[in-house]
UniProtKB/TrEMBL annotation:
<keyword id="KW-0560">Oxidoreductase</keyword>
<dbReference type="GO" id="GO:0004488">
    <property type="term" value="F:methylenetetrahydrofolate dehydrogenase (NADP+) activity"/>
</dbReference>
<keyword id="KW-0521">NADP</keyword>
<dbReference type="InterPro" id="IPR000672">
    <property type="entry name" value="THF_DH/CycHdrlase"/>
</dbReference>
<dbReference type="GO" id="GO:0004477">
    <property type="term" value="F:methenyltetrahydrofolate cyclohydrolase activity"/>
</dbReference>
<dbReference type="GO" id="GO:0006164">
    <property type="term" value="P:purine nucleotide biosynthetic process"/>
</dbReference>
<comment type="subunit">
    <text>Homodimer.</text>
</comment>
<keyword id="KW-0511">Multifunctional enzyme</keyword>
<feature type="domain" description="Tetrahydrofolate dehydrogenase/cyclohydrolase NAD(P)-binding">
    <location>
        <begin position="138"/>
        <end position="279"/>
    </location>
</feature>
<comment type="pathway">
    <text>One-carbon metabolism; tetrahydrofolate interconversion.</text>
</comment>
<keyword id="KW-0486">Methionine biosynthesis</keyword>
<keyword id="KW-0378">Hydrolase</keyword>
<keyword id="KW-0028">Amino-acid biosynthesis</keyword>
<keyword id="KW-0554">One-carbon metabolism</keyword>
<feature type="domain" description="Tetrahydrofolate dehydrogenase/cyclohydrolase catalytic">
    <location>
        <begin position="4"/>
        <end position="119"/>
    </location>
</feature>
<comment type="similarity">
    <text>Belongs to the tetrahydrofolate dehydrogenase/cyclohydrolase family.</text>
</comment>
<dbReference type="Pfam" id="PF00763">
    <property type="entry name" value="THF_DHG_CYH"/>
</dbReference>
């Protein structure tokens, strides 16, 4: 069994990105800029946003985090997004999700200029991805594709099962796997005989958001298992969607949690910001 070390790959890519960024600054006087907007006090979001800021600064980007109170109105948030849409110093705009209940998430994601939508959540970018002309790709599935590349996982003709149908992970993941010539099934919490279906997979990507949901009964001998889960167990420990200890001996390759998909997600967000700066300056 090979452990897919997302942290090591992310560290390597971040170092390369810092080098590219320094060169861009020297040769063109261009510094990629990323704005992250956080509304409210969600504890997990606070951690994610801090990590994004740290990563942007380490890459040599201009980084701004706008922390807004829970009481911020939708109109105030939309005004702020428009301000950054217009400001050429900022190449990437990310609004951390989830948003407070009183703000319409779809409206907010629509408001971000597609050219600056480094999350790839704007319908224009989602549509481009689905029509095979991807520009901005959601970071988590993009990071998983990088891991397949690094570990030379040949996807052509393989049976891939994605458990989870979110716009952030499941749907774009399925599309990217299809682009790489895998035969893809999207499964979810309502899928009948889920374990049996998952057991058909050469490639199993799990993004269902339930701690230790996938047991060895879900996994074919020799499958590649990617765990997108970030859950807390009853002791507050970070755990994946996959029961690592019993699945690892069955799998040919597997990502750990932490240290697997998570670090790659942030790295891809930075890559995407760098690319956006190149395209739009
Ligand atoms: N919340 C959880 N994951 C994400 C993500 O990838 N992007 C944003 N904007 N919010 C998130």
């Amino acid at each position: 069994m090979t452990l897919i070390d997302g942290k090591a790959l992310a560290t390597k890519m971040q170092a390369e990105l810092a080098t590219k960024t320094a060169r861009l600054k020297e040769e063109k006087g261009l510094i990629p800029g990323l704005v992250v907007i956080l509304v409210g006090e969600d504890a997990a979001s606070q951690v994610y946003v801090r990590n994004k800021e740290r990563s942007a600064l380490a890459a040599g980007f201009n980084s701004q985090v706008v922390r807004l109170p829970e009481t911020t109105t939708e109109a105030e948030l939309l005004d702020l997004i428009e301000k950054y849409n217009q400001d050429e110093a900022w190449h990437g705009i990310l609004v951390q999700l989830p948003l407070p209940e009183h703000i319409d998430e779809e409206k907010v994601l629509f408001a971000i200029s597609p050219e600056k939508d480094v999350d790839g959540f704007h319908p224009t970018n989602m549509g481009k991805l689905w029509s095979g002309h991807a520009v901005m790709v959601p970071s988590t599935p993009a990071g998983i594709m990088e891991m397949f590349k690094e570990y030379q996982v040949d996807l052509t003709g393989k049976s891939a099962v994605v458990i989870g149908r979110s716009n952030i992970v499941g749907k774009p993941m399925a599309q990217l796997l299809m682009d790489a010539n895998a035969t893809v099934t999207i499964a979810h919490s309502r899928t009948k005989n889920l374990a049996e279906l998952a057991r058909q997979a050469d490639i199993l990507v799990v993004a269902i958001g339930r701690g230790h949901f996938v047991t060895k009964e879900f996994v074919k001998e020799g499958a590649v298992v990617i765990d997108v889960g970030m859950n807390r167990d009853e002791n507050g420990k970070l755990i994946g969607d996959v029961k690592f200890d019993e699945v690892a001996p069955v799998a040919s390759m597997i990502t750990p949690v932490p240290g697997g998909v998570g670090p790659m997600t942030i790295t891809m967000l930075m890559e995407q910001t760098y690319e956006a700066a190149l395209r739009n300056s």
